[in-house]
Amino acid sequence: MISSMTGFARREVSGPFGELTCELRSVNHRYLEPGFRLPEELRSLEGELRQLLAKELRRGKLDCTIHLRGSHRAEQELRIDEAVLQHLLTRTGEVASRLSIGTAARVDPLDVLRWPGVLKDDAPDTESLHGACRTLFQETVREMAAARRREGQRLRELIEQRCGALAELLVHLRSRMPELQTRLRTRLQDRLAELGTTVDAGRFEQEVALLLQRADVDEELDRLDGHIAEIRRVIEGDEAAGRRLDFLMQELNREANTLSSKSQEIDITRIAVDMKVLIEQMREQVQNIE
Question: pTM of the entire structure?
Fold first, then answer.
């Protein structure tokens, strides 16, 4: 099933660490190009998250944002370990007494707070936080991939509709070819009559054959049929289809241009223009496919 390169997904989870939120946005891009915005506590996971992303998605420019909002963080960071503080003050008093100086005159309260262990470390367990982040990111990526597949299904239907319309034009053109060839022969006869020129039957048939050869588009029609069949095969497959479809759009357009350049009838020119309109519509949709 083909996938689109555009999509959005958002998930969140709560735990002892607070609240984690993950948002993914993707747009068209030739390759897979993720950009990450992570809180300081999760920066070490960026390489791992890139690998997780590459397992699910192949193309697209992605904006990956993870927010961490702690639970009562300010209060937690200012909780004092009374036992450590009392032990520190006792030892400080002993030193001050031996030096015969006043404790209060030498101790700065901010220095006391900076002393290791005085403020309780209520930071979330790193492994628990990282594990929650990995799980949340994987779930968000899967949600993004599912959304892109749903959009891809819509694109597949649009491309199939254009392929059907293009195939109908080919059938119509083939049905008109005998009539167009007859008109080409008649036009040559009328032109010779206007000029008052007479040629033997053999020479006339040679000229007609040359004109029909230059106007022959059977090869182009066969190749167009083949490209349409290949497009249908690709959009029904399970592999990434964007690059192959983009190449097929170029091939379709090349054949339609050749068809138009060979045309000596306004009817063929009009059909070729209609084909190019359908091909351009498909090409615009293909730009969104992974």
Answer: 0.67
